[in-house]
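Protein modeling request. Please complete all fields; requests missing the sequence field cannot be processed.
Requester role: graduate student
Desired output: 3D structure, token encoding
Chains: 1
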Amino acid sequence: MNSIKKTIIACCVSATGLLALPASAGLFGNAHDDGVAAYERGDYEGAAANLLDAATHDDPQAYFYLGNMYRHGQGGLAYDTGSAYRLIKAAATEGYAPACMELADWYNQGGDGLRANPSLSILWLQKAAKQNVVEAQMRLADIYLHGQLGVLPDAELARHWLELAAAQGNAQAQAKLSSLRLNAIPSSDSNSDRVAARTVDLTANLPRN
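Delivered output (209 residues):
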């Protein structure tokens, strides 16, 4: 049994003394929808009951919301940063973009039991950016333009991420592309293999936290 399954089972066991089982228990679609709706209106106890059920069906959005409730001690769930991290990472690993963004921020800032790690912050930003999350693309562009988070300035990679954001209609990215005067650098289309290889190289030897 993998660690996330163990975490979910432990969550369910510890929470059942505090939370009534939802009426939709066993109906994955209902548990997911009811849990998300409750979370978004601030009814964290109602959300927890449904999302715990949805999470047993490998629901990355449920992992993410539950992780945040553990991180903040909401909905009758005890403050537990270990469970929070495992759940949010599980959601990110499944490709849920908001979880990728949260891990990027968490690794950037550190805290709540997690040591800051700029390289892992960039890794999770890249995973979100590759799903066309404009905020992630813009942040990566700034990182490479200004040499932040321990990386050297790299105009080619900056342009790559700006072009992706601009292609989605982001006005700020379009303005930066116009003002940066990177005309001496070929567009990322003609360098896509090299850009992709350098992106992979950045994360190839990162620790598996």
